[in-house]
Amino acid sequence: MPVSEGTHPVQPAQANASQNAAQVAAPAPAAPPAPGGTLRITPDTRPASMVEPKPRGRAVGGEAGPLPRIAVLIVTWNRKDMVAGVLDALQRQDYPADRLDVVVIDNASTDGTLEALTRNRRPDLIVDNPTDKAHHPDFRPRPVGERMGNKPGFASLTVIRNGANLGGCGGFNTGLSYVEQALAADRGTRLVDPDASAAAASSRPEFAWLVDDDVDLPPDTLRRLVEAMRSDDAIGLVGSRTVDIRDRRTTIETTIYQDQSTGLFADQPDERHPRKADHDAWAASVGGVKGRHEYHGLRDVDIVSACSMLARWSAVEKVGFWDHRYFIYCDDADWCLRFARAGYRVVLNLDAVVFHTPWHHKLTPARLYYAQRNLLWTIRKTFEPARLREVMGLRSRTLLRQSLQAGMCHRLSHAEIMRRSLDDAIRGRDGKLELEAAKPRSLNGVAAELLGGSASAGSTGVAGVPPAAKADPESSGPEARNPSRTNSTGAAGVPPATGSEAGSSGPEARNPSRTGSGVRELTVAFVLARPIALGWASGLRRRLRDAVAAHAGVKPGDMPIRWFECLRNDFPGAHELEPASDECGPVERIVYASHWKSRLRRQTALIKRRADLLVIFDNAADLPLVRPPRFVLQIDSSRPTEGVLEKTGTGPRLSFLRRWLGTAMRARGWVARITPAGPDSKYGRMPASATPPG
Fold first, then answer.
1. Under 8 Å between Cβ of 646 and 640
2. For 507, what's the count of Cα atoms within 13 Å in the CB-facing half-sphere?
3. Ramachandran region of residue 632, left (φ > 0), alpha (ψ -120 to 50) or beta?
4. I need a labelling partner for 395 at 20 to 30 A (CA). Which of 191, 506, 552, 683 fits?
5. Could you report the per-residue pLDDT of 6-20, keeping only the tens digit for each?
6. Which helix (H) or strand (E) holds 18?
7. Residue 567, SS3?
8. Which of 218-227, 402-411, 489-498 has the highest mean pLDDT?
């Protein structure tokens, strides 16, 4: 989860297809739902393995008595190999498999996840959940017939097939609702025989373990989480220390706190935080909160990540489930803060490790939207009235400033994402971001646009939400419950770049300057924010030159392109860098200071000659060109062979400014009237006051 502003796949288990191929068939007809949306178990849908009580496991840490039964919840979307790896990791745990009720929530995957799980894992039960709202589940078990028990040997293995992608938040809410209806004691109908009271009592889960589908787990992770949880009945949540899945000696996340001044999440408590002195002493003793240090013991924190989080079920019944509005991001943080508000301890066990990908490596524009929007709702729920207006005012002004800066620096898609996050929080638009994503263009498509031809299939909508957001297992789902409308130019007001527009844009396009090769000379500028971007620019120059030359029908060496690199003067070695020149020709450098006067004065060359293309890497650009380029190419450094192309001009900027001013006015009134508020249901309700657990 993100802690401030600013995948290595797990190997799947070997499939035993021949043994289980007979189980892969057309979906069986769903059993009719029980009244009120509760789970209905009939003789045809009740697996025999769930009726009989399972043997009790050994004690944890030498503690007398049986091991707790644990419901394990895994949410997945189009990651069939990764979720298989997580199931393998569960089987490797030194905690008895027959004390685990594993529930895999499949968010309407299209990659054959359900079929692979059915074939290779032999689940005890498959449950359809055709609802598009996780807080209104509609569980319909499929008839299972005769089964031999699930292949991994868990107490039970259930796969819930959601009818839509409900996001990580909706997926875990689906799992929690299923535990409440099917596994927990004395509520609703059960997966056990209603007459077998002894079996029902022995099947009751004491804890729920929430696990991401792209993690790996050492064999002792669950045992250490349980040891921590059982050390104090006041503990409601226990989280794991996160280690980089690609560098398993480096810790990337330990302690997380909510800043009392800004509402942001950080790995260090701020000066107002009551744990400030204790945390500083601990961090100094171990060498820091991240890196290659030795970490042991328990730490009381504000927030633990749901990539591996153990929850006390009796506390969950009091606190409630996740806030249904969030979709992804901040949902686990909100849950932790609500547990603390109810009087429970939130604890990090530094000895319980989870291997995971750093969250910022998965940050897309759509994810940025969720992080910013949902943080505003979390702030509104967690701050007292006396400080709420101050903190919310600061956060709103920050978003407005960042949005305006991005818009003025030719990052209109990014600017619109920031503006929408604030505007939607004010208007209460929850759920999935409803913006049609622009399709990325190959460099061949970009070349066609630059030369006035027709590129690949037209892109519409907001160009700043690349298909990476759609391909992300958590950033696609059902329509937002209160969708906003967009016009034909897209929500960001950035119209699609079309061949006819490209060919008629600007004086250079109408009166192209021709060279001896008969091809108009192009001007391409790069804005470079980090030293590593020098290498990115060098590689992209070659690929772009070759693509343009191929489209123009000339040799790469005959393709006339004038190159610029724009660097801020605090760029390491900006003034000492040797003039760039490679096989693509010389590169002119523009070095500017952070103040506006320098930014304007230094771009004289790009005022005299309008840039055909401005290239921005990873949304990092702070240079507003006085003469807007014909096109802006947004490049994700992890996918350097394609990018999202936006057509620029005065119209899109003015359209954005009108929307920005409207949001600024709404934000001012909203902050002036704001009071603590949130959902009035178990799906997000904030406890009224801290009360001791009992």
1. no
2. 4
3. beta
4. 683
5. 333 333 333 333 333
6. helix 17-20
7. strand
8. 218-227
Query: What is the enclosing helix (H) or strand (E) of 156?
Result: strand 156-162
Beta strand pairing call for 522-528 and 561-568: parallel
Query: Token pair 């801290």 is at which residue?
Result: 690
Please check the confidence at residue 622 and state whether its pLDDT lies above 90: no
- Asked if 416 and 656 touch (Cβ cutoff 8 Å), the reply is yes
Give which of 36, 26, 40, 100 is closest to 68, Cα–Cα: 100
* Whole-Å CA distances, 172 to 68, 85, 320: 21, 19, 12
Residue in the structure block whose two tokens are 């070759």? 546
Phi-psi region of 453 (alpha: psi -120 to 50; beta: other; left: phi over 0): beta
Return all residues near 310 (Cβ < 8 A) that are at least 6 apart.
70, 207, 208, 209, 210, 222, 225, 226, 228, 229, 237, 238, 239
* Amino acid sitting at position 235: I
Q: Quick check: 622 and 597 in contact, CB under 8 A?
A: no
**How far is it, in rounded angstroms, from Cα 656 to Cα 405?**
12
Q: Residue 201 has which token pair?
A: 């009592």
> What does R_g of the chain's alpha carbons equal in angstroms?
28
Number of DSSP helices (H) and strands (E) in the chain, helices first: 20, 21
pLDDT level of residue 453 (50, 70, 90 thresholds) = low
pTM here is 0.79
Tens-digit pLDDT profile for residues 114-163:
999 999 999 999 999 999 999 999 999 998 766 678 999 999 999 999 99
Tokens 């192009």: give the residue: 522
- The contacts of residue 505 (CB under 8 Å, 6+ apart) are 630, 647, 649
Q: Which residue type does 122 have?
A: R
Of 282-286, 323-327, 349-353, 632-636, where does mean pLDDT reach its minimum? 632-636
Token pair recorded at residue 641: 């062979």
Report the C-alpha gap between 342 and 394 in whole angstroms. Answer: 27
DSSP character string of 367-393 = HHHHHHHHHHHHHHHHS-HHHHHHHHH
User: Residue 648: is its pLDDT beyond 90?
Assistant: no
- d(Cα 318, Cα 412) in Å, to the nearest integer? 44
Q: Which amino acid is at 660?
A: W
Residue for token pair 């990092």: 620
pLDDT, position 18: 34
Residue 53, classified by CB atoms within 10 Å of its CB into exposed (0-12), middle (13-18) or buried (19+), is middle
Give the span between the Cα atoms of 563 and 541, in whole angstroms.
8
Q: Which two tokens stand for residue 581?
A: 């020149």
CA distances, 481 to each of 106, 166, 327, 328, 432 (Å): 21, 12, 11, 15, 8
Token reading at 547: 């693509």
Structure tokens at 212: 């991401």
